[in-house]
Design a protein that fits this description.
The protein has 245 residues and is an alpha+beta fold. It has 2 domains: 64 residues, Winged helix-like DNA-binding domain superfamily/Winged helix DNA-binding domain (Arc Repressor Mutant, subunit A, Orthogonal Bundle), CATH 1.10.10.10; 140 residues, Chorismate lyase, CATH 3.40.1410.10. Helix content is 28%, strand content 33%. It contains 8 helices and 10 strands. The strands form 3 sheets. Strands 4-5-6-9-8-7 form a 6-stranded antiparallel β-sheet. Strands 1-2 form a two-stranded antiparallel ribbon. The protein has a two-stranded parallel sheet with strand order 3-10. Strand 8 and strand 9 form a beta hairpin. Helix 1 crosses helix 3 and helix 2 crosses helix 3. The protein is elongated. This is UTRA domain-containing protein. It comes from Actinomadura physcomitrii. InterPro entries: Bact_HTH_transcr_reg, Chorismate_lyase_/UTRA_dom_sf, Tscrpt_reg_HTH_GntR, UTRA, WH-like_DNA-bd_sf, WH_DNA-bd_sf. Keywords: DNA-binding, Transcription, Transcription regulation. One of its GO terms (molecular function) is DNA binding.
Length: 245
Amino acid sequence: MHGPTVTLDRGSPVPLYFQVAQQLEAAIRSGELPPGARLDNELDLAARYRLSRPTVRQAIQHLVDKGLLVRKRGVGTQVVQAQVRRPIELTSLHDDLAAAGAEPRTRVLEFGPAPAGDEAAERLGVPPGTEVLRLRRLRLTGGEPLALLTNVLPAGLIDVTAEHLAEHGLYETLRAAGVNLRIAHQTIGARAATAAEARLLDERSGTPLLTMTRTAFDDNGTAVEYGDHVYRADRYSFSHTLVGR
């Protein structure tokens, strides 16, 4: 349990709760309180800082609202993992996390041939029911789940194993197989987590998730991958630059 030293100026016009929140935020951003660190309970913090419990609760809530702390039943108040900000480029999540030094880990949940559903068939330009390779993976960073990734590829496009995909990114694997990814159509949105998604992502059912669907094409304009992904909104965001015409 943690609670960094806090110095209060009781004669300052700055509210005491805000002084506490500012110093806790500084400790989080400096790494003194690293991701996953648990704070002492409100009673202990109130005694340590010689404050009322409501004042401490207000300071904690301020940081929860900013996305720096999270309250978990049975666990307490924890520092959240740093949010992943991903540029909108034709790269895989694994590539972006590795490049940022985030040490991605992958759990392969599904791997193997499957009949193409209507949406995947349309995106890949094949008849519904055509055999495709379906992958479903859970991507983690810092020991916490970040995204649930579902990908569909034309059958026979690459020779790959589930064990390989547990250690390597899909786009890395495609490029190594000689598939030159050239362009993609991508849609970003949001929706509520299903009960199954919430269990895998360590969220509550109905929690808002970011969504992304993408169809990638090779040099010949052939669709080589369709992805349908969901991301924890508290740990993930997309970023891009807009240029005026």
